[in-house]
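Entry 14. Ran structure prediction on the chain below.
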Amino acid sequence: MPATKLAELIALQRRYHGARRLRRSLGDGYLYAGNPFFSRIRDAALGAGFRYTLEDPGAYFGFPLTALPTVLETRRIPYRASFDAVLALEQSRPGFFSLRDLDKNRPAPNYLLHESAHAVAFAELFGRPRDVRAALSDRSRLVHVMLGEAYAMTAEYLAACAVQGPFHAWLFSISSYRHRTQKKKAAGELIEQIGLPAMTWALIAAFLYNNFLVDRLRTTQVERLLGLGPRTAALARNPALVRHLGSCLSGLMVMSPEFRLDTSRLFLTSLGYPRDIRRVLALDPLDAVERDPALRAGIARLSAILSGERIRAART
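Output, structure tokens:
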């Protein structure tokens, strides 16, 4: 834990404030300026018409999992005024507190990266339906729904891998569900080998499989996801790469099966799905991707947002 004084943190918060950043969310400006995946998702969410609010649509703070349809419908992403709380603590005893004092007792987190990624995925895959809940409840679009979670997981994983230094790590820890970066070295090597756009698609597909209760990717599944990805088909013909990629993706997919199952059951049953969630999710999600060119195009756009391809295209 860095020995940074709270007064320094407060000064840093003010220094990094600017356009598209939230002054009252602790660390928001710093992460926007220093973490490219955080800023790409923020820019895309704002570009899709979403805004950020200190109000609480859908009782989000009481139960975030059940509030997602309301967040998507209102196009308002809630957050807590965590900077205000730190400012009040510093004012209670000026110059006394440092980040070390907040090691075990931290400000309430703002999961803005995760929720913003959900918003971006919904905008790209569903557009602006008149009835958001009906769109999410359409069983023919189950893969679209689960892609939203896979995209949020991908954004958090890549953003976590981009963290540099203990101060950045502390601010990210109160801004993301993900605190571990399994297979970070292997993922970095693969990005160097196949490029960030290809790896981004591979991560989205891996987490999509994971949301369909797949714990470890088979070789055939890795070959298939490469065959369906934007500009990745040739990679599927490299057996050594397929094995290395499969090992990396399977390693970073590790999570509690019970938590994943219970979370999926609660969320999907709230949308009208039956309780037998294993049966609901007993399909290969890439079947829908293969059948639907519009879905593949949406995934390609989402991948491009995270990998920065749109930014580079705009500058050339």
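The chain has two domains: 6-173, 184-315. Will compare against last week's run tomorrow.
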